[in-house]
Amino acid sequence: MSETPKFEVIDRRKIKAEEEQVSQQAGGKAPETPVETPSAPADPGAGPRLVVNESRRDSDAKQGAAAPLEEPELPPAPTAKESHEQKAAYDASSQRLEELIRAQNPAVGAQPPVGFEHLVQQFYVSAMIQMGAGTQEGQRPRVDILGARTTIDLLGVLAEKTKGNLTEAEDRTLQSVLFEARMAFLELTSMINMQAMQPPVPPPGKK
What we know:
single chain; mainly alpha; 2 strands; extended
């Protein structure tokens, strides 16, 4: 049973054209976007709490009951001109944002350019948080072990697909992060297996 959630690739160029058409018909007024309110955090308690992504679990149940569906047809790739124009607009918008931040916070310097090591570090931090790291003292850790496994597998895919195309420092960083994340996963799953094998503790006053 696959644990990878289904996704749909959407051609945002078509959506943008439709939004502009609706905006013109409505006198330039854009539709309001509903804002989702975050759910309340779980009550603190003793021991880690293992959680499973609900949408992933529901998707797995549906896949087990029905035959696999055909993959959706992908939209056409953007042209070189479209990609170039979008990249230029993105860089300009990013530069304006950075100038605004520095104007309000003069002590903040220019942000360094994003590199390969930032991508690797992002995956590593996500995996460790999914395994309960960073929980404040006194709070009950929430462990998304399936999500952590997916993130670590993504690191493995990154290592496989970039093999031979990295500098020595980049490859060393990726391999070290992947090793540490897998070791943390092994330690956590060992603890989960040990807890599952232990008999339940009877309530006080009962034998």
